[in-house]
Design brief:
This protein is mostly helical. Helices cover about 65% and strands about 0% of the residues. It is built from 7 helices and no strands. The two termini are about 20 Å apart.
């Protein structure tokens, strides 16, 4: 049971990566100060915060840069699995997460390693 909970949490984190680190996720944690410093006037939604952080990448804190790199690696590692199992699933409202969860035992080793 505990293992299933861990896998579910990992898949939930994976869903954020598939959505290209949503605005809310970027505005919290390691990137919160950087978002407030460099992107405070950027409206949330449609990738504005992500673009702002990329434009200021050389000035971002090391923890934020590391977070962005992890999200990038996770997205690359799981791209084929997402395409294989969930290509016809419309993103939003947890649909990708649910799709990936339904295929958790079939995910590639590389994708699972990044979860």
């Amino acid at each position: 049971m505990k293992k299933k909970s861990i896998v579910f949490l990992a898949l939930a984190a994976f869903a954020f990566g598939l959505a290209q680190a949503p605005q809310v996720a970027l505005a919290k944690g390691e990137c919160k100060a950087d978002v407030e410093k460099f992107c405070k006037d950027v409206p949330h939604g449609k990738g504005g915060i992500r673009r702002c952080l990329k434009q200021n990448q050389d000035r971002l804190s090391q923890p934020c840069q590391a977070k962005l790199e992890r999200a990038k690696q996770r997205k690359l590692a799981c791209k084929a699995d997402k395409e294989k199992f969930c290509k016809d699933v419309q993103p939003g409202e947890g649909r990708i997460k649910a799709c990936m969860k339904s295929h958790e035992s079939e995910l590639s080793q590389a994708c699972r390693a990044h979860l």
